[in-house]
């Protein structure tokens, strides 16, 4: 950390909280927006039908294509330089895909088409020359590099690149991607690779990028961009000056926040204050719907889904007339999530994704449930209400890997509003709240207009008030 910066020290419970940015610093979501939609812009080149439908719901950021292409191109250059000429065996999860391609010549042909179209797309979007993956052997080596590497801090972006996504990003916008990634055996291979990557990120070997170097997550630029003053205490710096108390990359990614930085709104025993519902997480308010039912379409990440595919059956949860509230987490947001109300947990389920990788045509399909790439944790909380107990459904959506979203919650457990109940292991999670009819009197915020850009959406703080219960 740069010792010349003007450090503000706040004494808290015997520890000092170091900060070089004010506590009320506005959340900068401009980079989140570019990260979330660059693949949409790339898809315009090869999938016109998808682009037309996507453009209706997503505001495209000028210049994001060349920025994204340069970003991924530089990563691929490093990947090839490190591994193309190295005499190292492929990881067994990558070898499984290699064996599949050797046995299935049709899949091998589809891969050749994807590589050819993807490399052409990458070259057309790059402003400077970078390495382009053009052969199956190069691609497999880059996949090996991806599942055995921890993301580095990217100074220009302010956050790290998902290595596996970096290998696939251009290929997912090609015509051949639909059939290739629809193959069940291919999906099994990629799911195994994703789980391999999460296992690596949970190991001490992933600490290689947790340092104060230019691409280390503990450098001064990362301290500012990732607001590490809200997570790192002076005691952590003193006790472990090398890794600041983080034992693995994932322990840094899903780090806990210092409590004072996420105070609980409505902390009191009075009925009026107990009527407050709080945000379960940091993130952008993306959608508020009233009087929904099982046939209502809602957005989850970038996919539309029927409410009936998300909620339990009517005997357990009454969805008719319910209120729906969706929050999208950004890369700089706290990855922990909390109980929005006090009550008793009725049930906890983890629902696996039925697809590991979905190309753009599948994501925008008329039946998107068949191409779901999100593992979902579903928690049902029963809360006391004057007119009888009501239920709140908490949906937490991660990526395809079962390790991407986790929860401590147990059926029968009593939770207090603001209790931590889960976490995300990767960026870009989504939390949805569904309230049974007549539970919510009013929401503090309304649904953002469709024409509003991602950067302009209201940013919510975890444990801040979002609604009032009808008491």
Automatic annotation (TrEMBL):
Residue ranges of coiled coil: none
Pfam family example for this protein? PS_Dcarbxylase
Please provide the Gene Ontology terms (biological process) for this protein: phospholipid biosynthetic process
Query: How would you classify this enzyme at the top EC level?
Result: lyase
Residue ranges annotated for the L-tryptophan decarboxylase PsiD-like domain, each copy included = 92-222
Q: Which InterPro entries match?
A: PS_Dcarbxylase, PsiD-like
Q: Does the keyword Lyase apply?
A: yes
Q: What is its EC number?
A: 4.1.1.65
Q: Does the keyword Lyase apply?
A: yes
Kindly list the GO molecular function terms attached to this UniProt entry. phosphatidylserine decarboxylase activity
Keywords noted in UniProt: Decarboxylase, Lyase, Pyruvate, Zymogen
Please state what the protein is called: Phosphatidylserine decarboxylase proenzyme
Q: Which gene encodes it?
A: psd_2
């Amino acid at each position: 950390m740069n010792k010349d910066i003007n450090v503000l020290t706040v004494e808290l419970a015997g520890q000092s909280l170091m900060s070089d940015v004010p506590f009320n610093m506005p959340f900068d979501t401009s980079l989140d927006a570019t990260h979330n939609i660059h693949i949409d812009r790339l898809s315009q080149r090869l999938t016109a039908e998808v682009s037309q439908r996507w453009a209706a719901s997503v505001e495209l950021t000028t210049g994001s294509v060349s920025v994204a292409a340069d970003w991924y191109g530089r990563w691929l250059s490093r990947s090839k330089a490190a591994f193309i000429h190295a005499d190292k065996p492929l990881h067994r999860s990558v070898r499984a895909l290699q064996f599949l391609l050797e046995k299935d010549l049709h899949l091998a042909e589809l891969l050749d088409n994807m590589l050819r179209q993807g490399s052409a797309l990458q070259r057309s979007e790059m402003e400077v020359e970078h390495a382009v993956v053009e052969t199956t052997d190069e691609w497999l080596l880059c996949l090996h590099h991806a599942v055995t590497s921890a993301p580095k801090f990217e100074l220009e972006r302010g956050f790290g690149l998902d290595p596996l996504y970096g290998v696939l990003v251009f290929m997912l916008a090609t015509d051949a991607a639909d059939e290739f990634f629809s193959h069940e055996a291919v999906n099994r291979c990629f799911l195994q690779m994703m789980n391999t990557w999460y296992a690596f990120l949970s190991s001490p070997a992933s600490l290689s990028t947790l340092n104060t170097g230019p691409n280390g997550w503990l450098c001064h630029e990362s301290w500012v961009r990732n607001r590490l003053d809200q997570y790192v205490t002076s005691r952590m710096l003193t006790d472990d000056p090398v890794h600041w108390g983080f034992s693995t990359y994932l322990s840094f990614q899903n780090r806990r926040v210092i409590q004072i930085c996420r105070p609980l709104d409505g902390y009191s025993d009075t009925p009026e204050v107990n009527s407050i519902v709080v945000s379960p997480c940091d993130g952008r308010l993306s959608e508020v719907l009233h009087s929904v039912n099982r046939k209502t379409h809602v957005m989850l990440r970038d996919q539309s889904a029927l409410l009936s595919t998300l909620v339990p059956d009517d005997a357990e949860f009454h969805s008719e007339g319910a209120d729906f509230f969706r929050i999208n987490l950004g890369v700089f947001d706290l990855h922990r999530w909390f109980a929005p109300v006090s009550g008793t947990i009725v049930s906890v389920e983890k629902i696996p994704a039925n697809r590991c990788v979905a190309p753009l045509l599948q994501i925008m399909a008329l039946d998107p449930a068949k191409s779901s790439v999100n593992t979902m944790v579903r928690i049902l909380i029963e809360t006391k209400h004057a007119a009888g107990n009501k239920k709140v459904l908490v949906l937490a959506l991660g990526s395809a890997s079962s390790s991407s979203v986790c929860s401590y919650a147990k059926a029968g457990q009593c939770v207090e509003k603001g209790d931590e109940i889960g976490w995300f292991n990767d960026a870009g999670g989504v939390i949805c709240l569904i309230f049974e009819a007549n539970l919510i009197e009013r929401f503090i915020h309304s649904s953002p207009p469709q024409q509003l850009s991602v950067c302009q959406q209201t940013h919510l703080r975890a444990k801040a008030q979002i609604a009032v219960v009808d008491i």
